[in-house]
């Protein structure tokens, strides 16, 4: 129905010819933006309501003193639903390790939480379809679990800043909210988030629409196609500075895929955008020594590059 | 009454601080308001998501920017 409305506006009301570059680009833009905003509004709201049941204080209790594997898997899963913003990364990290959450599980959480986030998933689902969105969730969780296990095995506790272990953490208890309060919270959260990301979505879809309409098909096949082994690492490196703009980046990448970028490269690029971020590294430097920070980034980067090669090989 | 706004200095923490001031003004409540930005003091309250609002040592909100109306509601 959305598609038909977009077609009607562009080809009938505005009188642009179907198949013309401007017509196709505008049609694509109208259809994609409305679809994405509808999805974003409904899903962010639902996720926000669910999140009110999983404050980080509860997640911490669930993960405290969990064994390897069980702890990493749970941490990665809870990373999806526990609200997390990189500005609270430090109190969260300290709260976790102080209450006996193993270092490896803490990292599984820290990796999965920004990577498997609802905005990225909605954009992937809306533009690439549910199969790609599911593959992204699955591989994102796998990266978080495996990287967390490796970091746990490396016994890097001594590379956490000393003061973290000496910190005395109080017990805040969990402030329970009534159902009404949860709905109000979810509404506010949804509005706030939409206010923050809408320009990125519009600009991202706009650039995507331009590429869709004006860039020749197979334009990228030579450089970003599956035959170029350098494409995956280059995509991962490019993803690091694009932090937190999953909303703007995904529509562009979607259009690039149409022009020949291979799917594994696309996945690796998006994971790098969400999981590897410079501002987060700067914040985490407050609690991690350089060596652990480098190991964390290195392991996640290697895992993401591996995901890229894997999907370029099998899909 | 002593009110503390806990947060490492992000935009949300500043908004919460402003909301607290407005709430006090609107409700005509007298209270001492302090910004707490150092990590050890934040952790002492067991808060893991900022910004958080503490009234007389008790965490009332954490991980959200409470609105003026909500703050008036908990001023009691």
Task: Explain this structure.
The complex is a heterodimer of chains A (about 325) and B (about 80). By secondary structure, chain A is an all-alpha fold. Chain A has one domain (about 1-165, about 180-315). Chain A is built from 16 helices and no strands. In chain A, helix 4 (about 70-80) runs parallel beside helix 6 (about 105-115) and helix 4 crosses helix 8 (about 130-155). By secondary structure, chain B is α+β, with helices and mostly antiparallel strands. Chain B has one domain (about 1-75): Glutaredoxin (3-Layer(aba) Sandwich), CATH 3.40.30.10. Chain B has three helices and four strands. Chain B has helices spanning about 10-25, 40-45, 70-75; strands at about 1-5, 30-35, 50-55, 60. In chain B, strands 2-1-3-4 form a four-stranded mixed β-sheet. In chain B, a hairpin with a 2-residue loop joins strand 3 and strand 4. Classes of the chains: A mainly alpha (about 325), B alpha+beta (about 80). At the A-B interface, helix 3, helix 5 and helix 10 of A face helix 2 and strand 4 of B.
């Amino acid at each position: 129905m959305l598609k038909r409305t977009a077609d009607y506006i562009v080809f009938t009301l505005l009188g642009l010819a179907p198949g013309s570059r401007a017509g196709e680009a505008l049609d694509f833009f109208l259809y994609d933006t409305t679809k994405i905003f509808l999805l974003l509004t409904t899903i962010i709201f639902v996720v926000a309501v669910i999140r009110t049941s999983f404050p980080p204080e509860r997640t911490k209790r669930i993960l405290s003193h969990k064994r390897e594997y069980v702890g990493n898997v749970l941490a990665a899963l809870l990373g999806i639903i526990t609200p997390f913003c990189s500005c609270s990364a430090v109190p969260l990290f300290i709260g976790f390790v102080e209450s006996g959450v193993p270092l490896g599980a803490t990292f599984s959480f820290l990796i999965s939480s920004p990577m498997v986030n609802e905005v990225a998933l909605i954009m992937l689902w809306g533009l690439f379809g549910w199969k790609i969105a599911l593959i992204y969730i699955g591989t994102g969780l796998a990266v978080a679990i495996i990287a967390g296990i490796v970091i746990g095995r490396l016994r890097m506790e001594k590379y956490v800043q000393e003061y973290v272990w000496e910190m005395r953490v109080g017990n805040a208890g969990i402030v329970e909210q009534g159902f009404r309060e949860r709905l109000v919270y979810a509404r506010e959260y949804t509005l706030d988030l939409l206010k923050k990301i809408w320009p990125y979505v519009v600009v991202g879809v706009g650039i995507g629409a331009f590429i869709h309409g004006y860039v020749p098909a197979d334009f990228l096949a030579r450089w970003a196609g599956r035959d170029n082994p350098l494409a995956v690492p280059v995509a991962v490196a490019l993803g690091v500075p694009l932090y937190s703009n999953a909303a703007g980046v995904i529509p562009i990448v979607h259009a690039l895929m149409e022009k020949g970028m291979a799917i594994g490269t696309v996945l690796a690029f998006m994971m790098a955008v969400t999981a590897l971020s410079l501002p987060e590294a700067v914040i985490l430097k407050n609690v991690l020594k350089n060596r652990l920070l480098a190991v964390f980034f290195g392991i996640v980067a290697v895992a993401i590059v591996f995901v890229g090669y894997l999907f370029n090989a099998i899909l | 009454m002593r009110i503390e706004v806990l947060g490492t200095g992000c935009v949300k923490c500043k908004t919460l601080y402003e909301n607290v001031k407005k709430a006090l003004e609107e409700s005509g409540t007298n209270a001492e308001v302090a910004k707490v930005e150092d990590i050890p003091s934040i952790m002492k309250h067991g808060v893991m998501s900022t910004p958080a609002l503490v009234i007389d040592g008790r965490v009332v909100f954490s991980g959200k920017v409470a609105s003026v109306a909500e703050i008036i509601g908990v001023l009691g």
